[in-house]
Amino acid sequence: MAAPLPVKPLRVAIIGAGPGGLATAIHLLRLKDVELSVFDQARELREVGAGISLNENTWRLLQDLGAADKLEQYVKRGANGKILMEHRNGRTGALLSRAYHNGDPDKPPAVRVERYKLQNALLSQIPPDLIQLSKKLASITETPSGVTLTFTDGTTAGPFDLLVGADGIRSVVRQHAFPTHKLKYTGKVAYRVLIPQEKVAHLLPDIPPASCFWHTRRNYIYTNVLDNGLFEIATRAEEPEEHGNKVSWGQTMPKEQVVHHYQHFCRLLREVIDAPDDWLEFAMFGGPRLESIIHNDRIVLVGDASHPLSGAFGSGAAFAFEDAYALKHAVDFARTHGHDLGYALQLFDSVRAPRYRDLYGVLDGMANNTEQVKSQNPDIDDDAYVEKTTERNWQQAQERGFIYKYNVSSTRPITPSPFADD
């Protein structure tokens, strides 16, 4: 039997101050009688990486978080006829598909911004002294009085009524709550970088001024000409497990480590890859879907901690914001209707677990599409393979509005009726 949800205060700890942890903090601070603590292992808060996509659902959630105004200066609304995204053959440069911006100035735009700008927008909504830094979680102890945290510096905190694991794909909280769930190195690393456009100025006339994926059979290169004078490049490459297990998140690598992976791309892309002097490297890990993302009526996972998708869909921030929104409303509903914390977390889980089930289903569908192309055309050449798999996977993805246009606020389980008392 879960303990009754206390009227005041609800003691909450959030582990992780990335987009998911910050969004959860913003939402829970809006509830009455919540005693909130936020811990992060970093010595200073900084976003590691390059750009981040803000799609329609991300923008809607940012507005709810009060952070959208901080990002409006980087947005051009009503860009009717402007290219939003292209997919091209990375060997030949041939256009495979193209999408355009929504020209409606009243609808949320799809934009690409630097990660630190999103972080600063979220931090603007949080008291500056709320986040405790240099707090790397070592262990979690559960007792009848709550959850106590022990950090690697020897300090402890708690007990807390609710622990929110927002500590990323290699989540310590998830490891505690679901010890049999194991991550696995995917065999790939991501390379990302932002450079001044001057470094590729001679190449820009041949590069689409939008998000562009350049595909080959083995891997892809992503390019984007940003509005602030920067040029973004992101890609993935196969590396042995021994290498991947040694890579820290956002480790600086010289170009010599990167360029040899892309010699099969066209000259234009080889020159693009050769332009940066250094890259940031990220080892890609993934894991199976969790059937539930709550534990013992007192622990909940949000963001990458709850869905180790290894960066699929490019919408990790949006998924984390959805989690934060759902958690706040589930806790608020439970408290105002006399239910306990376990009820609140089950309500949250009933909304979010199916969402991640559907997203994993998309990945399974993409893998099946690839296998079908191979089995139906055993001798297919590389260019035909790229065309067919891109058509099946990426063009179909544009039709899946539930990924990028999903509105968590309209999800029915958040309303009282599905959870009425017997």
From TrEMBL:
The keyword NADP belongs to this UniProt entry's keyword annotation: no
SUPFAM superfamilies according to UniProt: FAD/NAD(P)-binding domain (SSF51905)
Superkingdom field: Eukaryota
MF GO annotations: FAD binding; oxidoreductase activity
Keyword Oxidoreductase appears in the UniProt entry: yes
FAD-binding domain location: 11-328
GO biological process assignments: secondary metabolite biosynthetic process
Keywords: FAD, Flavoprotein, Oxidoreductase
Entry protein name: FAD-binding domain-containing protein
Protein source organism: Schizophyllum commune (strain H4-8 / FGSC 9210)
